[in-house]
Design goal:
With 131 residues, this protein is mostly beta strands. The protein has no helices and 13 strands. Strands 2, 4, 5, 6, 9, 12 and 13 form a 7-stranded mixed beta sheet that branches. Strands 1-3-8-7 form a 4-stranded antiparallel beta sheet, with no helix packed on it. A two-stranded antiparallel sheet has the order 10-11.
């Protein structure tokens, strides 16, 4: 069973930093792209960043230059370093893995940049940036 567990969210002032972690299990970590999407209250889900199995990274324009994604394959963990945070970064952040486990639900999957449809995701971690 694919499991993705996020941690590291919290409350931070504008301009501050947070590092999110995503611990993955239940699948061959190296074979999948892992990424992050977020959902702010009343807004659509937004793909933020991802890292593919060959190490290629993607960033949404809204976070480019401020966020950095990395992976530690020995720990099956992906990190999202978030710097220069802005109030508009406030959202629940979800770790996600590529794949289409159910073709009938593909319309519900978030597409994160070049990593494609992310058919697995965790429960999310809340990031709140105060002004």
């Amino acid at each position: 069973e694919v499991q993705l567990v996020e941690s590291g969210g919290g409350l931070v002032q504008a301009g501050g930093s947070l590092r999110l972690s995503c611990a993955a299990s239940g699948f061959t970590f190296d074979d999948y792209a892992i990424g992050w999407f977020r959902q702010a209250p009343g807004k659509e889900r937004e793909g933020v960043s991802c890292i593919s199995s060959d190490g290629t990274t993607y960033y949404a324009d809204s976070v480019k230059g401020r966020f950095a994604i990395s992976s530690d394959n020995s720990k099956n963990t992906v990190y999202l370093q978030m710097n220069s945070l802005k109030p508009e970064d406030t959202a629940v952040y979800y770790c996600a893995a590529s794949g289409v486990p159910d073709i009938t639900l593909v319309h519900t999957y978030v597409v994160v940049g070049t990593c494609g449809a992310m058919g697995y995701w965790g429960k999310g971690t809340l990031v709140t940036v105060s002004s």
